[in-house]
Design goal:
This protein is of the alpha/beta class and 307 residues long. It has two domains: 6-217, Spore Coat Polysaccharide Biosynthesis Protein SpsA, Chain A (Alpha-Beta Complex), CATH 3.90.550; 228-290. The chain contains nine helices and twelve strands. Residues 7-147 form the Glycosyltransferase 2-like domain.
């Protein structure tokens, strides 16, 4: 088996201890040829020095400002040397042999553009979080994850072509990034990996779920299930994804669903629960779209666009 260099990229924000737990699991893997890049997104209350102290082999990049999920990963991409890039959430841990199935798949399939492993919940290791995706529903503008919250009884043990990778863990060949461009930073948080998948597919590449590889996700440790930040970006970026990727009938269906059903329903829910900050965040995300923003602008990969 060939062992090309894999660059593992992870973003840290105020979670150095959690990141170190992820790095500890990476030290146990069997793949022999990798570099690990951690981008600290200008953590204001947590000193990332412990990462370098405990894991001196890691390339720790310090951003001078919080660039968001996409921007942080892009900073890592620009310093990566690998043939393959593997993006890994810092609130994850991996199985020792998780990289080999992914690398083997890409080595055999040059038209593959992006792939994610099986993702399971860290606290319930037999419960699946991700085993592929049916893609974005043209009515709702939301994605449906295959296998989510199912017990892992072997029903998703076959690798398949799928519509969307999962941003918690995904591999992309460097050559694909050079062709399609960097992760779209306009999202800042949420939906950016979905948009990137659409960019990759439009360039003629395919998206895959690799069942033989597995990682474990400590979901919602980095943002929180009901955070105001999540309310803002999930709603703002849902509409942003619709604007960037859907056209014609699909655009009007998704936009209509959002404005006529999702927006009134969520507004009523937050109002009845007296969650005024969430209600404000919901509408702030909507008003963002009234600004003169170049929503279709992407970032090309070049050797000179270091941030």
């Amino acid at each position: 088996m060939s062992t090309p260099l894999v660059s593992i990229i992870s973003v840290n924000y105020n979670q150095a201890r959690i990141t170190c737990e992820m790095l500890a699991s990476l030290r146990q893997i069997t793949y022999p040829n990798m570099e690990v890049i951690v981008v600290d997104n200008a953590s204001p209350t947590d000193n990332p020095d412990i990462i370098k102290e405990l894991y001196p082999e890691v390339n720790l990049i310090r951003s001078t400002k919080n660039l968001g999920y996409a921007g942080g990963n892009n900073l890592g991409i620009l310093q990566a040397k690998g043939k393959y890039l593997f993006f890994l959430n810092n609130d994850t841990e991996v199985e020792t042999g998780f990289l080999e199935p992914l690398v083997n798949f890409f080595e055999r399939n040059p038209q593959a553009g992006i792939a994610s492993p099986k993702i399971k919940f860290y606290d319930s290791t037999n419960i699946i979080q991700y085993a592929g995706s049916t893609g974005i529903n043209p009515w709702t503008g939301r994605s449906k994850t295959i296998g989510n919250h199912e017990a892992d009884l072997g029903q998703h043990n076959n690798s398949i072509s799928t519509n969307l990778a999962d941003g918690a863990a995904m591999m992309i060949p460097m050559e694909v990034v050079k062709k399609v461009g960097l992760m779209p930073e306009i999202y800042f948080l949420y939906y950016e990996e979905h948009d990137w998948c659409e960019m990759i597919k439009r360039a003629g590449y395919s998206c895959h779920y690799i069942a033989e590889s597995a990682i474990y996700h400590k979901e919602s440790m980095s943002v929180g299930k009901m955070s105001v930040l999540k309310t803002y970006y999930m709603n703002r970026n849902r509409l942003l994804f619709i604007r960037r990727n859907l056209t014609g009938k699909q655009f009007y269906m998704s936009a209509g669903f959002f404005f006529l059903l999702a927006l009134p329903k969520n507004s009523l829910m937050f109002g009845l629960k007296r969650q005024w900050q969430h209600l404000k965040a919901l509408w702030s995300g909507l008003f963002w779209h009234l600004q003169p923003v170049k929503v279709h602008q992407n970032i090309a990969y070049t050797t000179t666009n270091n941030q």
